[in-house]
Amino acid sequence: MIPRPEAANVIALVPCSKVLRIALTAAPFLLLPLLTGCDTQSYSPDLKYGPRTDPLLLTTPTAEPKFPDRPGQFPIMTMTMLTLRDSMDKDQAQFQLYEYFQSKKGDVLDPNDTNLLKSKVRKQVDGAIRRMFGTPASPTVHGSENETRLQTDLLLDDTTLAKGSELYRIHCLHCHGLTGDGRGQTSHWINPHPRDYRQGNFKFVSSSQPQGVQKPRRADLMRTIKNGLDGSAMPAFNVLIDEELEAMASYVIHLSLRGQVEFQLLRTVMQEPPSEGEFTPDAADAAAEALLTAFGQNWLEAQKAELTPDPYPFDPSSPKYEDEMQASIKRGYTFFIDTKDGCAKCHVNFGRDSTFRFDAWGTLARPRDLTQGIYRGGRRPLDHYWRVSLGINGGGAATMNPFRDTLKPRGKAEASVWDVVNFVQILPYPAMRAKYGINID
Amino acid sequence: VQKYWSVVFAVVVVLCAGMTILAPAVGGWWLPLMVSSFGGEIDFLFNLILWIVTFFFFLTEALMVYAMWKYAHVEGRKAAYIHGNHSLEFWWTVVPAVILVLIGVLQIGTWENIKYQTRMPKPDGKTQQMDVAARQWEWRIRYPSPEAYARWADPANEQAKTEAERWGEAPHYDDIHLVNEVHVWAHDKKADPNDKDPQKVLIHLHTRDVIHSFFLPNMRLKQDALPGKVIPVWFQAEDYNTARNEAGVWQDGYDPKKGQWAEYNEKTDEWTHLDRIWDLACAEFCGSRHSMMKGKLYVHKNRADFLEWLQSAAKAQNVRK
User: Fold this and answer.
1) What is the pLDDT of residues A26-35, one digit of tens each?
2) Which residue numbers of B have CB closer than 8 Å to A's CBs?
3) Angle between helices B39-70 and B86-115 (to 10 degrees)
4) Do A236 and B288 count as a contact with CB atoms less than 8 A apart?
5) How crowded is residue A73: how many other Cβ atoms within 10 Å of its Cβ?
């Protein structure tokens, strides 16, 4: 008797005909292709945006942690992270957040706290947000006073958003997360962490609004998606066609509006709790609509508020250009190294010794090392002009102040914005520093 | 009954044979368009190995099917006990060994030509240079400025010579930075048949994070980028795919022989002249978005066209208003 393979023995036990036995054996293999998932590209229609569960940071500490957060970890994701004091290193960001929020308890709100936020109120808030912004499969921006303008000027119509949502799912979701919270699967492992759109803060913008309400222009978002942010983990998506990138930008605006309305609505109902009886669905809708109208207005204004730079005062074809550059760079240098009002206040040792700071998202940012020649917001002189003039809206201690009113021609400083830009442009290159007599060592 | 199993195997082999004959004949199923100077050598080796392997695959399959048919189980027939066959074993060891050595010898020249550091083009004024930094998941590419090309073109300028030689070592103030776009110019064989040392493209390849692989299918060029190393890579394009389109913008997908552009028809969901769009791909699994780590290869007609494009890129980068 030849021993049979074990699998054959098992199959032989099945009490049925030989043909059926062969069919039963073959069936799992034939069904295997089904496991690959013949899925559509968009989200399931049953999927809903999750309600916000992470704490609302109203302010952030000015402390400067020595170390960034460890790989695989955010400084803060939940309130429980702020209670694990004993396991923390004192130089770690988390510990300093803990200390800070111990002293300023009112500055951090926990949306999971049922004492602070009654579950009935929470339900109304979530319902209002859902009615206003739809689901991931059919996103919408609905119920604002300037709804038509949002649709025409900001391309927030349902068709574009649905397309943007599909593309977002493919290209952005794994880092930026379903709700745009910047906490997707891979986000823990990359530092700087992906942007959380829900605060409505964007860093690399060209609109001249004041920093509290500053929003990016669509062109700014497009530039970021297209060219990526060199020096962070954001890659360039310029292989995709413009139409797709535009849809992605629209969807990002949708997520940002949704997140910001949710943030502010939660903040309002937690700081001034309404009575449960009065906070009806209609009242919640009205509150959300007022917020959406205000934030939508910020976005609409941003589109028309591009900062036009002052004309570049030097002519590269002029014979005096080199002398002018020499003087310009010198002025820029002098302003830069001023530790009181100039750039060196934060960009210590030209950014080589900059310290970590907390930003609006409760994560860490650090003033750029400008000797590297790597710029997240773009390397064109125009990009640098916008950064110096308008600052970087990082929130909290990580905000770069706008220097528009400090530098010439509006301000009193010796240097103009272009002088600082000229200096920053040559700073990374030893040959250029030698040429213009700049010593940074 | 059991001998009919051999028929199943025979059918599979016949289908394989059909595909093998069909694939080179059907457009888009075979190798992409080859436009590099050494691509012919690579394709020769590829085809040589492919057809040797194909021949022996069908030979062994045929023998197997024959054996299955002839020696299938018959009630009462007893298997013969043999203890190996020395002459058979001798031949099936010696023949593959000879083939292996033959392939090994045949590829030496090609390997030397493409990969030896001594055969790399010198980074002088004639060579096109670029610095390619791979990172998850994009290609950051740095070009010398148009001014640098102008300086390097002067053979009497000793300082420029040193500058060109050392260009790849560090970034410069006037470099042009682009993402996912490789721009080069083609060497036109017909225009200058006597040029013994036509210009080539020299790439300083490195990576900022994990291992990537720089792959230009149309150039038959593939080179891993290893952390901590700058690896020189060269190629020479013999055809071009980039020209100014009707709007005056530099665009790839151009076929100079037919004067047509690659086009996508939304209604039929089909491309025409897709073979004129040349990819840059990552050929080493480098992370979750490896498949999206794509760029494009733009080959300009000649140096003048390339410099004109470079001027426009420099202008876009130095924008101040």
Assistant:
1) 888 888 877 7
2) 135-138, 140, 171-173, 177, 179-181, 288-289, 292-296, 316-321
3) 160
4) no
5) 17
Q: Quote the longest CA-to-CA distance of chain A.
A: 102
Largest distance between two CA atoms of chain B: 94
Count other C-beta atoms under 10 Å from residue A96's C-beta: 21
Residues whose CB falls within 8 Å of the CB of residue B137, separated by 6 or more in sequence, listed in order: A235, B282, B286, B287, B289, B290, B292, B293
Q: Does B288 sit within 8 Å of A425, measured CB to CB?
A: no
- Residue A186's closest chain B neighbor by CA? B288
Q: Which of A169, A110, A106, A87 is nearest to A135 (CA)?
A: A169
Contact B240, B299 (CB under 8 A): yes
- Residues A376 and B232: their CA atoms lie apart, in Å, by 28
ipTM: 0.87
Cα–Cα distance, B219 to B182 (Å, whole number): 12
Q: A392-436: per-residue pLDDT in tens?
A: 988 778 888 899 998 988 888 889 999 999 999 999 999 999 999
Separation CA B20–CA B301 (nearest Å) = 36
Q: Which of A132, A156, A95, A84 is nearest to A284 (CA)?
A: A132
Identify from A238, A315, A371, A384 which residue to disrupt to test chain B contact, counting B C-beta atoms within 10 A and taking the largest count: A238
Cis peptide leading into residue B137 (ω within 30°) = yes
C-beta of residue A181 within 8 angstroms of C-beta of residue A50 = no
Q: Which of B138, B173, B319 sits opposite A236 (nearest CB)?
A: B138
Q: Determine, for residues A235 and B320 on separate chains, whether the beta-carbon distance falls below 8 Å.
A: no
